[in-house]
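Sequence decides. Our protein:
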Amino acid sequence: MSALTHLALILFSLVLLPAQAASSYDNALSYQPEQQILPTLPVLEQKALAENKLLLVALGASWCHDSVALLERFAEPTLAAALAERFEIVLVDVAYLQYGQATTTRYQLPLYYGTPTVMIIDPSNRQLLNKPDLMQWTNAASFDEGAYQQYFLTTHFKQQFAATQQPALTEAAQQHIRDFEEQQAATLAMGYQHLSPLLAAYETDPQADRTEFMAVWDEVKRFRGSIIADVQALQQAAMLDAHSPLKIPSYNEFSFLKPADADKEKTN
């Protein structure tokens, strides 16, 4: 091999190297089955703690446009490098809404309320730091690179969390609000259970009937989108008037509840 040919091969390999590295990184950045992720979480929490990082847990799915958009942003080289400096990143596949709850309950959230759900976690105590922002990132595709950089790279999550705490709330009020959220999460889980096979058929079978899927999808979407806002409204009401009973929001009857489940909802 001549010296000129050898030099040409070296230059060609240098040109290919960044593209190959980016491609390898893109392939590695994907939502992983929850069954595989769960056993690794204690180790990842300890790793984040040892490296003075936060834990970033994103729950999404390949069928979800916004979930895919989130990963595409996270894979952009500049942002990817900065994220790696600040976070230990965990990506959980919720499949067709069958999975994810075991992950969220570990971090003090009874269920995810959309995809993707991006949770920022303090690894020292598994505290969810960004609960008020969770619904924002279910619209991940609508944000530009600047919005990603501002949120993920400049937000002081621990300070923000401390500022949003309501020490004035009585323990009784806090428990009442927690019970409300857990009840709504349990109802939403029933909605996901009913929706799951319809969603799978919608995504994989061109001949599947879309009518029932779209009706249930819209119903579940409206409901899941209201839960965190209703929880926040209850917290504000309890702060303004600690002596009056909380006015618990009511919802229309859900089509996805079986008769026995609907009766149970009315008694709660």
